[in-house]
Amino acid sequence: MKHSRVELLSSGLKSPNCRLEALRLKSCWLSEISCSALISALKSNIHLRHLNLSGNALQDSGVELLRDLLESPDCRLETLRLRNCSLSEINCSALASALKSNIHLRELDLRENYLQDSDVKLLSDLRESPDSRLEALRIGGKTTRANIQKTWL
């Protein structure tokens, strides 16, 4: 997606009149600059509940920005899809860190990222934490779901 288009989208997302609840930017070739502008705009949008950035090579800087978004007290995201985003071990640690403080996220999709066993364990342990509200974690072709007691189904 061209940077000028992301700037236009970002300005719309920053508008106090914006009530967008779902944003799907799957395989849009987001650049580092575009990702930065987008995430910055999303920080000011309190209505967004579902975000799909699948198929974009977010790189470490993009995931760091997402971490900042997820850690924001105004973030109300319930679903985050990062399928096939070339996530690294560093990225998973940043996401896990952010999810510890996010009380709204219910579903996280990280399939097709070829995560290491340590990444999977870190995220699975987080999902099992009593403080986590994460109900569905999709990793490596598997979906783990939690019921109210956070037990494996």
TrEMBL record:
Keywords: Leucine-rich repeat, Repeat
Gene3D superfamilies, per the entry: Ribonuclease Inhibitor (3.80.10.10)
Entry superkingdom: Eukaryota
PANTHER family hit by this protein: NACHT, LRR AND CARD DOMAINS-CONTAINING
InterPro entries named among the record's database cross-references: Leu-rich_rpt (IPR001611), LRR_dom_sf (IPR032675), NLR (IPR051261)
Name this polypeptide is given: Uncharacterized protein
